[in-house]
Amino acid sequence: MCTSLYCKSDALPDVPYDLSCSACARVVWYTAGLFHFLAMDDRTLFHKIRDHEIPATIVFEDDEVMAFKDIHPKATTHLLFIAKKDQDFVPSIADLTEATAHVPLLLIRKAQRFAKEQGIDGYKLTFHVGKGGGQEVFYLHLHFLSEQKTGV
Ligand code: AMP
Asked: CATH 3.30.428.10 residue ranges in the chain?
């Protein structure tokens, strides 16, 4: 007997859905679609912050770079700088290629300019590299830490 809520048709005892039933077929179709969608979405948390799908406190954004507050700050000011363009995406420093070698410098230059604009003259810049290096999110990001406050 088919176990679907609206289905009255008989099915093989060990098969939960009878595909000859339109209600069952729809359930199987939607479930398969959902699994397919989830498997396709290999974007990281920072892709979703970049695309404004997940909220973050954004303190700087231009065409190339976004900076937002770290949700678990390790200093008075703890920001994360990421490159925005898809062609600049790289999971980690360990994955840099000729095509993405400019990205760390891009992030450093934006952080430097941001600090200057905010009147911050002392800060640390860090890349965590790989799980062994403490990296949790595999979307290259520059940690900006300072005991000085920003105005944003
Ligand atoms: P890492 O360990 O270098 O991969 O750094 C990832 C950082 O992302 C950690 O410092 C986390 O606190 C931070 N983080 C995780 N989730 C969020 C979030 N939703 N918004 C802002 N920062 C986050």
From this structure: 45-146
